[in-house]
Design brief:
seven-stranded antiparallel sheet; alpha+beta
Length: 289
């Protein structure tokens, strides 16, 4: 497969993501004759895009396809790309399977580096995931899941209901870590206010769902939300009277751990998870006879 076909396939394969974010191809100063939308120099072949989100480029060099990004530059500012990912890709020996894998990798990189909220006409039309009933949780036939926590949370904080729906619209499914990491502040603000009525209402939700929740749901309450108390002893003390002892123990221990050196590193990894990359299938080399 020659480079011209590869460049064209990549351009076509990422067209949906680039169109959503209003990315436009950057006309190169020195275009590649066989494919004018790309450039060719001593650093290899390159496709570059820009929009209000920033800019990115895909560079083919040294048997790699390298994805680089840059934030929006002001007028007259030099554009300096930072390479954020690289995929092994031999232009001369690549086949359709390799190309499909590469296009998926690039689309993942675009999504990861240029978040995009789809515009919808009626946010109210988005269907929310089903929730687990109290009776099902109490009799052990089911466990509270993150969607149930989100539903109860956004009943208490109705201003977040649309953000809950927007999370589903943006990602095509509910991503609880994304949602609660961004909107944990609502719970933390209640704790900081120390309003007895609101505190009781908040921890009635947390206690009930924590005790009969899945491991993921418990982790969201303790790590994603209440770790944002940042081991503040006064805030933790104000919560203890409202928390179930089992929840209180978990929250205090997590906050203590995340305040340590190793805990701060763990918190950084929680806040900055690596992008999932499926393992590249190895080509089978048949022995020579």
């Amino acid at each position: 497969m020659d480079i011209q076909n590869i460049l064209q396939a990549v351009q076509n394969g990422i067209s949906e993501k680039t169109a959503e974010r209003k990315f436009e191809l950057v006309k190169p100063e020195t275009p590649f004759d066989k494919f004018p939308a790309a450039s060719k120099d001593e650093n290899g072949y390159c496709l570059a895009y820009k929009s209000d989100f920033g800019s990115f480029r895909i560079r083919f060099a040294d048997n790699k396809a390298i994805f680089g990004v840059v934030a929006p530059a002001g007028e007259g500012e030099e554009v300096k790309f930072s390479d954020v990912s690289a995929s092994f890709f031999e232009v001369g020996t690549a086949d359709e399977k390799d190309l499909k894998y590469l296009v998926n990798e690039i689309n993942d990189s675009i999504e990861e580096n240029f978040k995009y909220n789809k515009t919808i006409k009626n946010i109210s039309d988005i269907k929310l995931p089903p929730t687990v009933s109290k009776s099902a949780a109490k009799n052990g036939s089911s466990y509270y899941d993150p969607a149930t926590l989100a539903s109860r949370y956004t009943v208490m904080f109705p201003e977040l209901r649309e953000e809950y729906k927007r999370n589903i619209d943006t990602y095509g499914e509910f991503l609880p870590d994304e949602f609660f990491n961004e909107y944990a502040y609502a719970a933390i603000d209640v704790i900081k206010s120390n309003d007895k009525t609101q505190m009781k209402k908040l921890f009635n939700i947390f206690n009930d769902i924590y005790l009969d929740g899945t491991n993921e749901t418990q982790s969201i309450i303790v790590v994603t939300i209440l770790s944002k108390l940042n081991n503040d002893t006064e805030l933790l003390a104000s919560c203890v009277d409202y928390m179930d002892p089992e929840l209180a123990s978990a929250v205090i221990n997590v906050n203590k751990y995340l305040s340590t050196r190793s805990g701060k590193k763990a918190q950084f990894l929680l806040d900055n998870p690596p992008r999932y990359k499926p393992p590249k299938q190895r080509k089978r080399i048949l022995p020579q006879v």
